[in-house]
Amino acid sequence: MPSVTRKRFDTRFFVATVPHLQEAAHDDVETTASSWLAPRAALTQYWAGDIELAPPQIMTLAELSRHANVASAMTVPAHRPPPVIQPEPFDHEGTRFITYPGDERHSIQQRIWSGPTRLAYRNKRFEPLDGFESLFA
Questions:
Q1: Does 16 reside within a domain?
Q2: Phi, psi of 109, deg, nearest 5
Q3: pLDDT tens digits for 67-112?
């Protein structure tokens, strides 16, 4: 199991508009490659094994995929403060699970996002229990 399944860290994600034809740049230390991808395209590449994503990225991209465009995604922060998401892991029969608010095993019972409330580490990646398409349900 990769070390990311045992680490606890705080992550912040930001939504912003960028000028047309903006070029991404990375620092060659923490980030060593960069590209512009639509949320669903990034998750599709993750599912195919082409890129690696950690659970916070998976869940954030799944949530962003519900928006038709950047303008739609930009309306969310204006209407509510960003939720505090505190994933809670557990192991069962040799599998690592990560739960999110609204999951029956999570200490916060109120859902804050659509889609799955639990990811399992299987097939050398984190997956929703009901498969890829459940990320977008």
A1: no
A2: -85, -20
A3: 998 889 888 877 777 777 889 999 999 999 999 999 999 999 999 8
Confidence band (pLDDT; 50, 70, 90) for 2?
low
Determine the number of helices (DSSP H) and then strands (DSSP E) in the chain.
3, 4
Question: Which is it for the CA torsion 8, 79, 112, 133, positive or negative?
Answer: negative
Q: Report yes or no on 45 lying in a domain.
A: yes
Global pTM?
0.84
Cα dihedral across residues 115, 121, 126, 127: positive or negative: negative
User: Under a CB-based contact definition with an 8 Å cutoff, are residues 121 and 94 in contact?
Assistant: no
Shortest CA distance to 116 belongs to which of 132, 91, 135? 135
Q: Map tokens 């962003």 to a residue.
A: 64
**Domain presence at residue 1:** no
41 is in which domain, residue-wise? 36-136
Q: What angle do CA 81, 87, 93 make, to 5 degrees?
A: 160
